[in-house]
Design a protein that fits this description.
The chain is α+β, with helices and mostly antiparallel strands and about 575 residues long. The protein is built from 27 helices and 16 strands. It is globular.
Length: about 575
């Protein structure tokens, strides 16, 4: 954790910096960044480059960074955050004093930071997520430096804007697999013992297999969330067995309120508490692997291929769309009849194409929306009555009462960097960053600090984003499942049958298991927490508590209500810590 502040109300200006950081300072400038920067780039004198005005060097950095640069001559302060948001950084401006840290707690302790009631309500209503990350936090005077942005402060002038020099989207001739190999080899040479998170999916499978070629001490970890053997777990076992490396299975630890309160105190962000951080601490403590490679961001870089389906949808080419979806699932399911009735297909259809129809509906175009839905089912050779099996009408009605989903306002890289690109390239790039998972990355950063470990992301690299962007949607969609880029790379190093995961993994089961533990240990205490009811809806809580005598009550509750109550419990724990 590092902390930096400048008080411009004092003459001369007062500069304070401390914590575990890499610092360069001369008579003319001061540079501060995270402690691992020099390890990652020993050949780069970043302070010298910045002082010479060479900020374009940032595009050559392929590991996350947050950098503070202050010119003592011009009294200009600049803060840079990496394109993907791997390294978190926050700031607070009170009068003429600006404070910056990679942890909110350091800024919150400076005082004069009131809770942001609007942000808390948005958090409870699911409007605070990776899908609409912005500069706000739970404190009204603490803000986030956005991914891929520059924060600039001069006396009486504060602005935050996208960093145009960070990435140049030009057609890339680099090979996706070769870039990944280069990154993994570099990590394996720098660190003695490296592990991987292996989910059984495409991106984590590719990373685990390539690392096994480079490292003799490679161990993979799997999050076991179900007592029964799942498809994802089977795939993870096959990868580990076929390529000869150990696979450690980590089960979710029982929720510990003491640990949660400690986590709340250190993070100061209830949204980060949603992530099961204790599991990662358990992984770190279970072996010698203090450096872990993660496939997080694979969807972002490779693309899901959904823009190809979207083109067909917008062209009303439903017969072609049916064939594409058949291709999407044919590696897993033998016949279209089974595909049409599979849970994954139903989820995909209602979760993606129905939303498209709802967007038309929300524009007061009821008849076009209904015609679209009926034609979709007709051309798919499905009964119109199947519509009612696939649609949660209560969920639809609740969505119609809300505003349409907002765009990713904070980081509109599409319009910034792809001014000459196609509309679908722009849409894909914007979707990439929407789905990146900034809060999850910030959580990993905090876990690394608390466990004295490092989590690295080989797939989060601007070069790989370049390679993906200049592929056609059909190429990305190729070989049966979306994310064709990763799939093609994996097929060069692994048997084809290891690439066939179609599910979204066991994460939902993990979240449900954690909810049950949290409810048993803390849920009954919520009614006595008067502070939390200033923000939360007690009726939703009472609705959930009415089911808890049933052993499988979580399966009978509306999932939106379940998430609401889970967030309410985390908020209550956090408010307790804040008030103590």
């Amino acid at each position: 954790m590092f902390y930096f502040s400048i008080d411009f109300s004092l003459k001369p200006y007062s500069i304070i910096h401390n914590g575990d950081a890499f610092v360069q300072e001369t008579e003319e400038w001061l540079l501060l960044t995270d402690r691992h920067f020099q390890d990652n780039y020993p050949e780069i004198n970043i302070g010298k480059e910045f002082s010479a005005g060479n900020f374009s060097i940032l595009k050559d950095l392929h590991v996350g960074f947050s950098i503070i640069f202050y010119s003592k001559k011009t009294h200009k302060l600049q803060v840079f955050r990496d394109l993907f948001g791997i390294k978190s950084i926050y700031f607070s401006l009170i009068n003429d004093k600006i404070c910056i840290s990679d942890r909110i707690k350091s800024l919150q302790e400076t005082g004069e930071n009131n809770l942001d009631n609007k942000y808390i309500k948005a958090y409870l209503d699911f409007e605070i997520s990776d899908q609409n990350i912005n500069a706000d936090t739970f404190f009204s005077n603490i803000k986030r430096v956005l991914p891929g942005h520059i924060l600039t402060y001069e006396i009486n002038n504060l602005k935050q804007e996208p960093n145009e020099s960070l990435v140049h989207f030009e057609a890339s001739n680099e090979d996706f697999l070769e870039v990944i190999k280069e990154k993994i080899k570099d990590f394996s040479l720098k660190f003695e013992s490296v592990g991987t998170y292996l989910s059984g999916g495409l991106d984590s499978g590719l990373i685990s297999i390539l690392l096994n070629y480079e490292s003799k001490k490679h161990t993979a970890f799997y999050f076991k969330t179900d007592s029964e053997l799942t498809e994802d777990e089977t795939l993870a076992e096959e990868i580990a067995e076929n390529f000869g490396f150990p696979l450690k299975k980590i089960s979710p630890p029982i929720v510990d309120i003491v640990i949660l309160k400690d986590w709340a105190s250190k993070s100061m962000q209830p949204e980060l508490m949603l992530f099961p951080a204790e599991i990662f601490a358990k992984i770190i403590n279970s072996g010698n692997e203090k450096v872990l490679l993660s496939g997080h961001g694979g969807d972002t870089i490779a693309g899901e291929g959904l823009e190809y389906l979207e083109i067909q949808f917008e062209n009303r080419a439903f017969k072609s769309l049916k064939n594409s979806l058949f291709l999407y699932y044919s590696k897993k399911v033998a016949s279209w009849e089974k595909i049409g009735k599979s849970e994954t297909f139903q989820s995909f259809l209602s979760g993606y194409f129905l939303k498209k129809s709802l967007q038309i509906f929300q524009k007061n175009a009821l008849w076009p929306a209904l015609k679209l839905i009926f034609r979709l089912f007709q051309d798919f050779d499905l009964s119109v009555f199947d519509l009612f099996d696939r649609i949660n009408l209560k969920s639809i009605l609740s969505k119609l009462n809300k505003k349409s989903p907002t765009q990713f306002k904070g980081v509109d890289f599409a319009s910034l960097f792809l001014k000459t690109g196609t509309r679908h390239q722009k849409s894909q790039l914007n979707s990439n960053f929407i789905g990146l998972g900034v809060h999850a990355l910030e959580t990993f950063g905090l876990i690394d600090e608390l466990t004295n470990s490092r989590t690295l992301y080989p797939l989060l690299d601007a070069r790989l984003l370049n390679i993906s962007l200049f592929q056609s949607p059909l190429e990305k969609f190729s070989h049966g499942r979306g994310r064709g880029t990763i799939r093609q790379a994996l097929e060069k190093v692994a048997p084809e049958n290891l690439t066939n995961r179609t599910g979204k993994g066991d994460f939902d089961k993990l979240i449900e298991a954690i909810f049950k533990d949290l409810w048993e240990s803390y849920g009954k205490l919520i009614p006595d927490n008067h502070e939390v009811w200033k923000y939360a809806d007690k009726n939703i809580y009472n609705n959930v508590s009415g089911f808890d005598s049933d052993p499988i009550f979580t399966e009978k509750i509306n999932k939106d209500d379940l998430w609401y109550v889970q967030r309410t419990m985390y908020l209550a724990i956090w408010l307790d810590v804040l008030g103590s």
